[in-house]
UniProtKB/TrEMBL annotation:
InterPro entries listed in its UniProt record: AsmA, AsmA-related
Residue span(s) of domain AsmA: 13-182, 482-705
GO biological process, one term: regulation of protein targeting to membrane
Region span, Disordered: 136-165, 809-838
Source organism of the structure: Belnapia rosea
GO cellular component: plasma membrane
Name of the protein: AsmA protein
Pro residues compositional bias, start-end: 825-837
Length: 852
């Protein structure tokens, strides 16, 4: 039978326990019944005013009595900073706080449920960048200074005990559930006026009954993009306990537009946000779907982005970023990314890169390392930022190695750049056009900035170029300013321009018949636009020496070039070289500051051997031989070649000695001139003693100052002019031919245009020429016939000699002398026999003159 003693004391014990519990609860309930929350408004408002310097507005405050009483607040708002875009910085339509009574007995506040309805928070800056969340607490009134009573101040060793006691007197706080709905968080930049808004549909937190861990779920929308939130953190009391040492766990998740972001880890001192250790993971199937979230950041069309990293405080480690296949035509036309991987073992370690892609269907690979990304962060102290990259494309390899002293400013750049291309033609798909078949191309140089950030251009030191088409070495500076261009000097042992000529493009597919071309303008000087507009945007000062230059099969030795372009003016002085036939020097200038532009070209050569020169041009055997002197200096105005010629001023002189004319040259003469020559003259080489020609040009009108041709067939002089505006010809030529003892001098008129010249002999001149030829056969010419020939225009003054005409053509400069004149054959002895019949050759001459 059980002992009744325990029963006797158990019941009073339960009653006593009930009294101990209910009595304080009843007292608290009675206190709540007598409590008027609205009477506390002034104290609450004053406390907030003192802490923030802002005015707090409170609507009605209510209290719902129950075992878990609920405190309600309506229309709560906090004033904005002075000059803000709206009066309130924050407002809440309704707040509900449901409290547990019994924990209050142990100085612990347990919030069973906290409800926030319609919170609206605005974070903004003013025009000077001052934020509205920078509060200014109200100044406290100064306390009167009084002498201390009692013992002196306790020693410093008592401070920890006092702090511990203060901590013990603090209330414990726990929140079981938080519900936030219909909220809004806005951001406004007072300098730019840009705004962003985060709409909060709902956010809920629940405390685990056993562990106290807080679990979070919710949904928000940023710039109209829905974002799902999940998370779990440690207990709230651990967050508020300053004496706790265990890390406060945290796990957060975010999903938006198919992308996911997760972070898990812990915070050693969550109240100070110190000792953060998080593992971060992100997956983004399509980066551009996040564009509404980052409207100011142009996002490339990247796909399958995956990111993992560890965060310790503000330090990143074990970072790995990978990208999948993506079409990046928007970044670079023809670029198709296959994969990209970036790894960063430590924050201060180099960033390793590896990528594969195709560019215009050519295989592209990238590998190498970059300096630590932390050196690019704002506020980072300038330190050398190393760089080592290798790019391979269609067999070509490009490298960049070196460092940048100040990477944020791109200052102190010291990079060794290199390019190796075994076959340049293999890169034709990249250029979009055929490339020359240059092989074994090697380029090396050192790159430095001209001004920080390359804003003023770049410096290329120690340029070295080698290839099957030639070489070059020197220093160059690429200048960026109001105009762009290069300055510097280069030297080459060999340049083969023929090898740099790309192959001819394949014939295009047959197209529909094109419209008939416009009727030709029947002009010889083309209406060719001159490339002068480049002078408006380019400033250049470049010197180049080439030991051997090959162009169109012609080899030039010792070429020197100095090109200066500045402020819309250009000067090429000199451009000199030694051709296969001898040296030649050119000068050219252009001035785009005048209207119309001014162009000048000058050329000089003391003597070019035409035989090797024409042979080098592919004319074998050469049609003309001899030593040619050149003296030209012409200038004009216009934007095309025809306009420049039509306004030309200057001179052009040609002097040829000790040469010959091929018979084919005679055969190509106009028929009117060929008829003056004996039959068969075009079938053999004609020795040429001299040829002199000089034009003085004024306003497009070229007037002859020297005009003489001295050959084995005779001589021809004359005078006349050429209108370069209309290309009209007006010449009067005087042939002085000798053949088989016959002298023929009949003026020839040349009119028409360069495109369609008209050559003719007047009847009077033909009669005079015939009489002159007849009289030349007589030992004692008939004076009356001589007078008749003169009356018809025959005879005329003697033609000048080679020496005088060559001096004029050369502009007074010395030059090689012509071959010695052949001595005339002695006249036959007088005879009384009748004059013999005209030789066949002479008859042909006369028939040519009379046209029958």
């Amino acid at each position: 039978m059980p002992d009744p003693a325990p029963r006797r004391w158990r019941r009073p014990a339960l009653i006593a326990l009930a009294v101990l519990v209910l009595l304080p609860a009843t007292a608290i309930l009675a206190l709540l019944l007598a409590f008027d929350p609205n009477s506390q408004k002034p104290r609450i408002q004053a406390a907030v005013q003192a802490a923030t310097g802002r005015q707090l507005e409170l609507g009605p405050i209510g209290l719902k009595l129950a075992l878990a009483p609920t405190l309600t607040l309506q229309d709560v708002s906090l004033a904005n900073a002075p000059g803000g875009s709206r009066p309130q910085m924050a407002s809440i339509r309704r707040v509900e706080v449901e409290l547990a009574l019994l924990p209050l007995l142990s100085r612990r506040v347990e919030v069973r449920r906290l409800v926030l309805v319609g919170p609206d928070i605005l974070l903004e800056t003013d025009a000077e960048g001052r934020p509205n969340w920078a509060f200014t607490p109200a100044a406290r009134p100064a306390e009167p200074a009084t002498a201390p009573e009692g013992p002196a101040t306790a020693p410093a060793t008592e401070a920890p005990a006092t702090a511990a006691q203060e901590a013990g007197r603090r209330l414990g706080i726990a929140v079981d559930r938080v519900d936030l709905t219909e909220g809004r968080l806005a951001w406004r930049d007072g300098r730019t006026g840009a705004t962003r808004s985060l709409d909060i549909a709902r956010i809920e937190t629940r405390a685990d009954p056993a562990s106290g861990a807080l679990r979070l779920t919710g949904g928000v929308a940023l710039n109209g993009v829905p974002i799902a939130l999940t998370g779990e953190t440690g207990p709230l009391d651990r967050l508020l306990d300053p004496a706790a040492t265990t890390p406060w766990p945290i796990r957060l998740g975010l999903e938006a537009a198919g992308a996911r972001l997760a972070a898990s880890g812990g915070i050693a001192q969550p109240r100070q946000f110190r000792g953060v250790q998080l593992a971060v993971e992100a997956q983004v199937p399509e980066l551009q779907k996040l564009a509404p979230l980052l409207p100011d950041a142009p996002l490339p069309p990247l796909r399958d982005l995956a990111l993992t990293a560890n965060l310790t405080e503000a330090t990143v480690s074990d970072l790995r970023l990978s990208l999948g296949a993506a079409v990046l035509d928007a970044v670079l036309p023809g670029l198709h990314l296959a994969s990209l991987t970036a790894t960063l073992p430590r924050q201060d370690a180099p960033l390793a890169l590896a990528a594969e892609a195709r560019l215009n269907d050519l295989p592209l690979r990238l590998a190498g390392t970059l300096g630590s990304p932390t050196l690019l962060m704002p506020g980072a102290a300038p330190q050398p930022w190393p760089l080592d990259l290798t790019v391979t494309l269609a067999g070509a390899t490009g490298t960049a190695r070196g460092s940048i002293a100040d990477p944020r400013r791109l200052a102190g750049v010291d990079l060794a750049l290199g390019l190796r291309a075994p076959d340049l033609a293999a890169l034709a798909p990249l250029a979009g056009a055929p490339l020359p078949p240059v092989r074994d191309l090697a380029i090396d140089t050192h790159l430095a900035e001209r001004t920080p950030g390359f804003a003023g251009g770049a410096i290329l030191r120690g340029v070295r170029i080698a290839s099957s088409a030639g070489d070059a070495a020197g220093d160059l500076v690429y200048v960026i300013g109001q105009r762009q261009g290069f300055t510097g000097s280069l030297a080459s042992n060999r340049i083969d321009l023929d090898a740099l000529r790309p192959p001819a493009a394949p014939p295009a597919a047959a197209a529909a018949p094109a419209a008939p071309p416009p009727a030709p303008d029947r002009r010889v000087i083309p209406n060719l636009p001159l490339p002068l507009e480049a002078l408006r945007i380019i400033d250049t000062d470049l010197r180049w020496q080439v030991a051997s230059l090959v162009a169109h099969g012609l080899t030039l030795q010792g070429m020197q070039l100095h090109l200066v372009m500045q402020d819309g003016r250009a000067r090429l002085d000199p451009l000199s070289a030694t051709l296969p036939g001898g040296p030649v020097a050119l000068r050219a200038a252009a001035d785009l500051t005048t209207t119309p532009p001014t162009v000048q070209v000058a050329a000089q050569s003391p003597g070019l051997d035409l035989a090797p020169l024409l042979t080098a041009f592919g004319q074998n055997p050469p049609q003309v031989t001899g030593h040619l002197g050149l003296d030209a200096d012409l200038r004009g105005q216009g934007s095309d070649l025809r306009a420049v010629a039509g306004s030309a001023h200057g001179h052009l002189g040609l002097a040829l000695v000790r040469g010959s004319l091929a018979g084919s040259v005679v055969e190509r003469l106009p028929a009117e001139l060929r008829r003056m020559l004996p039959a068969g003259a075009g079938g053999r080489e004609i020795p040429l003693r001299c040829a002199a020609l000089r034009f003085q040009v004024e306003d497009g009108m070229a007037q002859s100052r020297a005009l003489l041709l001295d050959t084995a067939l005779g001589r021809m002089g004359g005078e006349g002019g050429l209108n370069l505006k209309t290309e009209a010809l007006a010449f009067r030529l005087m042939p002085d031919l000798r053949l088989a003892g016959i002298e023929l001098r009949a003026p020839v008129n040349v009119a028409g245009t360069l495109h369609a010249p008209r050559i003719g002999v007047s009847p009077e001149a033909a009669i005079a020429g015939g009489l002159g030829a007849f009289l030349s056969l007589q030992n004692s010419p008939d004076r009356s016939l001589q007078a008749l020939a003169g009356a018809f225009g025959g005879g005329g003054g003697e033609l000048p000699d080679c020496e005088s005409q060559l001096a004029i053509a050369r502009g007074g400069r010395p030059g090689p002398a012509p071959a010695a004149a052949q001595a005339a054959s002695p006249p036959p002895a007088p005879t009384r026999a009748p004059a013999p019949a005209l030789p066949g050759a002479a008859q042909e001459l006369l028939r040519g003159l009379f046209g029958r």
